[in-house]
Amino acid sequence: MRIANLVLSTLFAALLLAVPAARAADPIVIKYSHVVADNTPKGQAALKFKELAEARLPGKVKVEVFPNSQLFDDDKVLEAMLLGDVHLAAPALSKFEKYTPQLQLFDLPFLFADMDAVDRFQQSAAGQKLLKSMEKKGLTGLGYIHNGMKQISAHNPLRVPADASGKKFRVMQSDVLLAQFAALDATAVKKPFSEVFTLLQTKAIDGQENTYSNMYSQKFFEVQPYITESNHGLLDYMVVASTEFWTGLPADVRTTLEAALNEANAYGNKIAAELNEGDKQKIIASGRSQVLTLTPEERAQWVEVMKPVWKKFENEIGKDLIEAAAASNTRS
Ligand code: SIN
């Protein structure tokens, strides 16, 4: 009897010890860091990814989205990713120059006529190949998210390139963007997105270039009385993960996450134009900033001054790639 009791209690203790092991494994935590507000195309795409991924992999995956540079500024996030401190990010295409010269393509002024052309190029074989351009550096591109075309805001009205002469602008981390402002006889400084509002407010800089959704959500329009609707350049994003993290995921989880990400990015792309137009109207309605529409003659002057920048970067980016992107302006 005593022996039977001993066996029973040993079995019971073993069962108790086994319980935690029998519980479902802890979910894979995916930290998704970005620098913009939730109510922007990228912010919405990130939240949509969380919704889809957690619904399709219940208990297996937990997505934590950190907007507004809460976790990392864009100039730090890729280093953090390679150290495993963050798992997904979607920096602007202008912010990869340390990792590949090819993505500078997207910064060339007046390269794309509109967002349909951007879409055609990003979905083409050449555009998809760029997602793999940083594999040697340990980063895998997982897709593109649109924001839209950039406009130039300033303390003074900029109608023609000469109005920008001698002024100081903030740009993202891109030598092409520095060259673009140098072509205007202006200076530019590379600064993180999180610092732009204060730089403008304190008048440490005269202006900056961005989309309406960023200018509205970060309140740049409150400290910049003029916005020139130049549509001179693109602000789009690449969603990236460290290759080590992404390929280390269980295959079934990775496939489900890829599908969720594609859907979430497509959702962000679908609402991007509408969000930017809505934010433009809110800026106009605020009366804090005046949107300047250029005449065709005025716009032609910006094109003439800025477009020679292409030539300077032709070797670094690749002539073929530039031609392929420019060709996307005509529908095949
Ligand atoms: C972003 O849209 O992610 C930031 C853009 C910027 O740095 O101006």
From TrEMBL:
Pfam families: DctP. One of its GO terms (cellular component) is outer membrane-bounded periplasmic space. Keywords: Signal, Transport. One of its GO terms (biological process) is C4-dicarboxylate transport. Residues 1-24 form the signal peptide. InterPro entries: DctP_fam, TRAP_DctP, TRAP_DctP_sf. It comes from the Bacteria. NCBIfam families: dctP, TRAP_S1. Belongs to the bacterial solute-binding protein 7 family. This is Solute-binding protein Shew_1446. It comes from Candidatus Defluviicoccus seviourii.
